[in-house]
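From the shared-data thread, chain only:
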Amino acid sequence: MIDLNGKKILFLSVSFFNYEKAIAKRLSDFGAEVDFYDERPSNSNISKGIIRLNKKWYHLKINAYYNRILNEIKNKKYDYFFLIKGEATPSFFLEKIKDSNPGIKMIYYNFDPLTEYPDLIDNLKFFDKKFTFEYRDSVNYNMNFRPLFYVDEYKNLNHDTGAAIYDMVFIGSAHTDRYIVGEKIRAVADKLKLNSYFYYYAMGKIAFRLKKIIDKNLKQFDIKKVSFEKLNHQQIIDFYRKTKSVVDINKPFQNGLTIRTFEVLASGKKLITTNSDIINYPFYSPDNVLVIDRENIQMNPEFFKIDFKKLNQDVLYKMSLDSFIECLFGDAQDDYWNSFRK
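Structure, as tokens:
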């Protein structure tokens, strides 16, 4: 177990379904003193859209926000600076943190492909340790490879022996071709007489309607099938409790595994995924994971009749949030994760 007792950490992260809060709490559990800030000045749909499209249009607000952070922490010294994604984080802020904290360890993590966010590449030079969930980015940008994690609430579901009422469940945000692929999966499930439930989530009605106009993948989306209410972890866990398997539809240009992958397998549920790269991970087993082609969806009904094969405890630990933190703040785990690549 890594020793962070008394270490001072400045932690900035994009907001992602409260996982940033779970990370901050666990760092505190390890004895660290954590100052946390959202890396975006605002999480409104408009703000997110502007930052993603062209953050130069938003630079005055971004600069004011980051100067306020600098003012708030001006009398503090940190052992670590930890940034997750950093879509809005300006270079002047990173320079100032390094200059004002001699000897600080700068740690970066990204859970999105850099091909989708090329503006992030230039800031990599500020970091001592750089991690990505995408194997290809680890090779292309000389980064450490560390997949995502699960939080313990999902592992605790392993002890639940209640009967499942669904054969498969999908819970996810509406983006790229998810709806198109999801509805194809639902149609195949119906033909096989499998009981399914699909929950598509969107951030807001106005933003979704606008996106639907310009995104060809969303033009086919039946708005009656989208929800504008975000499910919390407990609600998601309740759905997992009722199902035999969970469907995961990755972005078509993404090879890194979604956090859903880790939660599902840690909870003792089977996974149906469009991400074929999962065969290169230590927890892959055809008994537990059904890989499907998003262009030609086929499912073997026998998959749903075979019991979940329990994961090795060492592998389960490597998938955990604790192992994730140990990797980023301690020894990198590239040798372990890369050893399973075929």
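The chain has two domains: 8-147+321-338, 152-317.
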